[in-house]
Structures are given as structure tokens and as C-alpha cells.
Specification:
366 residues; alpha/beta; Rossmann fold; 6-stranded parallel β-sheet; globular
Length: 366
């Protein structure tokens, strides 16, 4: 069984949940199932950090380009042109990594997409007018022979928005075991909250900052660290200043996976205030590293985290601050959620994800 993955996501993302997913999936297939499955990423240019660290067998024919402004758009355009003319797309399965199924594939090729969320359809105001994601997704949904959804919530949104038959959709939860659980014990915590990833729009970082300000009035030594997502914007700095929070109490930092693991292990709590997620890897990463989680109860987040996190209404600032305060005020509460978090993450492995995906491929070829 020959499987082709396009290179779109590796030009769009330097790092992030979707490109992590494909690296783990393709690596699992190559390492554990090569006796009957032959995965291949289309040739071309990329800027993805995970791919540079992956096996040379996976990245053969792919060339790394250092990041520059507009790189994602330009590299995608180049690869689209290059692959149309030069790439061999003779395959059994064509799995599009970000909603772009090319014209001209043989009718015998089975086409698969993974849908990560329906945020563009449900909250279009959070995106620029020229964002074509929803349009691309709609086109690929029509063309696809089968759709993988990364949560039951995403599957239900797909059915409700596009009136797709449930039989055309298979749920395959993502894995989190790339963050290995080193020790199932409670370690000494430091007086900071951790937030990870992009902060704009539906990520709801603004409400977290406002909730933090409420807690900060009674806990002047508490800090909020925003990891990744770029430097704090002028609007974010203005909000922090308007709430009378000192600059050194809310700040942004970046670093490698090892730096993030260290922050997870030392944080008093990890907070995930997003209004909508298709799955949500960061809170599971936090759990894998012994960090208690306080998170939104909306969309797929409650489904994925279950009883292993303290959940709040992301649109209710007082609820956010109350749940965070409940977590950080009690060592016994934190210990409870740390241990339940260790158990929760065991449900999500890349081995399971890969097995479900391969089962879908095989059924399509029967």
C-alpha cells in the first residue's frame, strides 16, 4: 500500500500541532508497518523544524529553507507548481495535509483528509477576509473518499455544517506520547501560571489576562508566562498596563521542547482558555509533565480532558479566575489533578492514532 502525503503543512508551519501529527503518523507507519505500507511525503521545499529532525528516509526529496517573511505562502506556491509538473502522484492513498486535493489524480486513488476543527466556519470574524481555509476545506470535503476527524466534537460539527454522512467520518484522537511521562510524582512547584501557543482571537488570552489581574490583587508574587505565540503585541501590553499588572508579572518567552517540558513541570498550573479547539494538545502535554490543568469546558476540550482538569466557562472572567484560584490555593487539589492527568494522557498515543488511520486506508482499498 503506497501512501502519499503532500508537503503543504510543512510549508505552512515551522512547528505546531498539525505538522507534529503528520511527523508522528508517518514515522509510526515507516517504523512499525513498513512491511505493507510505504509512506512518502511529496518532494519540495519546507521550513518545518520537526521535519529537519525526522529520519532522513522521511525527508528525502525535501529541502529545508530558513524562515523568512511570507515563507509559508511562497513555498506553498512553489511546491504546488513543482508537484504539478514533476512529482510522482501514482499511489493507492493520497492524504492531503491541509485541505488541498489536486486535480488530475487517478480515479483509482483514494483521497483522505484530516479535519482538525471547524473554527473558520463557526467563528469567521476571527480571520482575515482573504483567508481561504474554509473554502479549501469545503472543496476537499467534497473530493475526499473519507474524512478523519480528531475528536467527536469535530465530527459532529462536520455533520451539522456540511450534512455529511457519519459513515464517511472516522474519529482518530491525536497522541501526546512524544512528551514522555518521566516520573509520576508531584514535584516542587513555582509561583507561575503557564499559557502555551498563539494568543489571538478565539484563543481568548485577553480574558485570561483579565482573570489573572483579579488573582494578582491577592497574590502579588504570581506570574503568568506565555510560551510561544510571538512577542506580546502592543494591544496586549496596553491591556496589561491598564490592569495595573507590572511588566515582569506577565511576559512572553520562547524556546525548544526541552524548555517547554521544564516549564510544564515547574508551573503551578497550566491554563487553557480557548473558546474552541478541535482537540487541544497543550493541556495533555501539561498533564504528561505533571502540571495540573485549568481549562475551558467548550467544544472538544471537555471531551478530551474528561475529569482530569478543572473546567471553566471561557467567556466568564469571574469563573476563570475562581477556577484558577481553586487550583493554585490548595496543594491537595493540585495533587489530585496531577495524578488524574497522568492517567488521562495514557488514552492518547500515536500508536492508536496510526492504527485507526491505517484501518481507514485498508478499508478504502477493499
Amino acid at each position: 500500500m503506497k501512501i502519499i502525503y503532500d508537503n503543504d503543512i510543512f510549508t505552512i508551519q515551522r512547528f505546531g500541532g498539525i505538522s507534529r501529527y503528520y511527523i508522528e503518523l508517518i514515522s509510526q507507519i515507516y517504523q512499525e508497518h513498513s512491511q505493507y505500507a510505504n509512506p512518502k511525503i511529496l518532494n519540495g521545499l519546507h521550513r518545518n523544524d520537526y521535519l529537519t529532525c525526522a529520519s532522513k528516509d522521511l525527508s528525502s526529496g525535501l529541502f529545508y529553507v530558513p524562515n523568512f517573511k511570507g515563507a509559508g505562502y511562497l513555498l506553498s506556491k512553489f511546491n504546488s507548481f513543482f508537484n504539478t509538473i514533476f512529482s510522482d502522484t501514482v499511489t493507492d492513498i493520497y492524504h492531503a495535509t491541509y485541505y488541498r486535493i489536486p486535480e488530475g489524480l487517478s480515479p483509482n486513488v483514494k483521497k483522505v483528509i484530516t479535519v482538525y476543527d471547524m473554527i473558520h466556519e463557526l467563528y469567521p470574524s476571527y480571520f482575515k477576509g482573504n483567508d481561504k481555509t474554509a473554502e479549501l476545506k469545503a472543496s476537499s470535503i467534497i473530493k475526499a473518499d473519507h474524512i478523519l476527524a480528531i475528536s467527536e466534537n469535530t465530527k459532529n460539527d462536520l455533520i451539522n455544517i456540511y450534512q455529511i454522512s457519519p459513515d464517511k467520518i472516522t474519529v482518530t484522537y491525536l497522541g501526546v506520547d512524544h512528551f514522555k511521562v518521566q516520573k509520576q510524582e508531584v514535584v516542587e512547584k513555582e509561583n507561575f501560571l503557564l499559557y502555551v501557543g498563539p494568543r489571538g482571537g478565539y484563543k481568548n488570552f485577553q480574558n485570561l489576562v483579565i482573570a489573572f489581574a483579579d488573582i494578582f490583587r491577592e497574590n502579588k508574587n504570581l506570574q503568568l508566562i506565555a510560551f510561544g505565540g510571538g512577542r506580546l503585541s502592543d494591544d496586549e501590553k496596553a491591556l496589561i498596563k491598564s490592569l495595573n499588572i507590572p511588566d515582569d508579572s506577565v511576559f512572553q518567552m520562547s524556546g525548544s521542547d526541552s524548555v517547554l517540558k521544564d516549564l510544564y513541570s515547574r508551573a503551578l498550573a497550566f491554563v487553557y482558555p480557548s473558546i474552541y479547539e478541535g482537540f487541544g494538545i497543550p493541556p495533555l502535554e501539561a498533564m504528561a509533565n505533571g502540571c495540573p490543568v485549568v481549562a475551558s469546558k467548550t467544544s472538544s476540550i471537555g471531551e478530551v480532558l474528561g475529569q482530569a482538569a478543572l473546567l471553566f466557562d471561557p467567556k466568564d472572567v469571574s469563573d476563570i479566575s475562581q477556577k484558577i484560584d481553586n487550583m493554585i490555593a490548595s496543594a491537595k487539589v493540585r495533587e489530585k489533578y496531577i495524578y488524574s492527568g497522568y492517567q488521562q494522557v495514557k488514552k492518547y498515543t500515536w500508536k492508536k492514532n496510526t492504527q485507526v488511520t491505517l484501518d481507514v486506508y485498508r478499508k478504502l482499498l477493499q
